[in-house]
């Protein structure tokens, strides 16, 4: 199991669109469903900030886009709220 520092690295990398760092943390075994204090996963953060490549990577690595955060917002809700249509078109 990865430590909190590694989880935080993955979450911040997803939030800033650092695809290489997200890939590295996944390769290190970080749980793709790890959450921050507001129960956002990396896919929530990437969708809200508009990084479709990170969203796609997370889904390819079994992140569940149907899990809500503490407000029951799904990653798709956050992408729509922030007008990041490209994150809604990831398949």
- Helix/strand order: HHHHHH
> In percent, how much strand structure appears in the residues?
under 5%
Shape: globular
Oligomer: single chain
Overall number of strands:
0
Helical content class: 40-55%
- CATH class value: Mainly Alpha
Question: What is the total domain count?
Answer: 1
Architecture, CATH level 2? Alpha Horseshoe
- Low-pLDDT regions: none
Q: Separation of termini?
A: 29 Å
The total of helices stands at: 6
Question: What name goes with the CATH superfamily?
Answer: Ankyrin repeat-containing domain
Task: Report Rg.
Answer: 12 Å
Largest sheet report: none
CATH topology: Serine Threonine Protein Phosphatase 5, Tetratricopeptide repeat
SS class: mainly alpha
- Mean of the pLDDT scores? 94
